[in-house]
## 1
Amino acid sequence: PSDPIGIVGEIPMGGADVWRRLPVPDPLAFAGLQMVRALERQGVRVSGTVTVLQDPSASLLAPGPLGADGPPFSILAQLESPPLLDILRPINKRSNNYLAETVAKLLGRTVVGDGSFDGGNRAVEAFLTDVVGVDPEEVSVRDGSGLSPENRASPAVFVQTLAFMAESPHWEAFVGTLP
């Protein structure tokens, strides 16, 4: 499936190229389709369709009964992520919102077992309230990038979080990610 893209405007003859990045409406389906296309270009015959699972526990690769008792599978490829610190630098220095949202979902999956936007929001709020000790009434996280108009954090939350980080063994690494 694809969503139509409308392009309006003018580029003068001999003018410079114009490039724009566009968000992908369904990144999981897009990634699956790109994988199928890449395999087919390499001569691998792919049958069936790309299916996106909203419940990670329903995956054949998930730990637990379904993953253990489902049909056999083979890992085709594996990619190791760069260290988290290397990902946080472009998030903070260049305001890479896509990476910020992805890290928030990863936190959600790792901390609360839910790799969705909501899971990431709960993980961040839990850290701020349970670990840093901020007042839950003074913070509301609605996305990983900070672009949602529903995000709320009082100045006290920022000061308390910075004070917490300054006392942590991760202070130097944290400050190194800031612009």
## 2
Amino acid sequence: ARPGDRRDPARPRRGDALTDTLALLAAIHEADLEAVRAVGRILPEVAHAADEIAARLDAGGKWINAGAGTSGRLGVLDASELPPTFGVPPRLVTGIVAGGSEALVHAVEGAEDDEAQGAEDVKMAGVTARDVVLGIAASGATPYVAGALRWGKGIGALAVALVGVPGSRLASIADLALVVETGPEVLRGSTRMKAGTAQKLVLNMLSTAVMARRGLVWRGEMVAMRPTNAKLKRRAIDILGRLLALPPEPAERLLVKADWELPLALVSERWSLPLEKAREWIAARNGNVARALEEE
């Protein structure tokens, strides 16, 4: 303290980024912006990975996210959101996390160090040569994820690494490496922060781009979403109304008639087809709703 300064030297002072709440939040916010910029630098690689993943799914494969801690939880989160958003089967994209389901809500210490368990969990998920294994780890070195990637690649699955360190172990194992260099954390070593933010951004981009490539997005709308509750039913009515210029009441009647199958309602109304013919039209395009809406 300066001479004459009677304040307690241990008391937080405004302007100290580690003790002043607003300054700390500003530092975290700036770090998150760095994460956004880091993701922007690898967009070509993310686009290439999305195209490759979509091709595997189109050929009958499935997609597994594998990670530990924050990375594993983010992989499970993104996978779990795809069925309601894009109407895909729950088994098409799934997530596995070191330590199993308990690790989704509690830290399971040491689980990330078990490389053999990573391989076993991917094996138990039924991964085949047609599939995709996406390993997520900020350090690029997590043994559990290395085991998952190595086993998947060994049987011919597409191995993709989402990491934060160039030249890492996981990047060397993978067929495709997405390296998001976010740099040091505000809270040193806490990769749940901007490294986790970057992972969430990339996972959102990948899954959305893959589903768009598979025809589940049309004119910026989620045309295959599943209206499984009141909120989502209202959203389906809105989507039908926006895309086909229908007032809410006729849109709702059409969806009820189609048993709330949004793709069916859209194709039926757009081409004035009976519902069964609309179903056949979508099936003939392998479930590609965008194609079914574009091809008269």
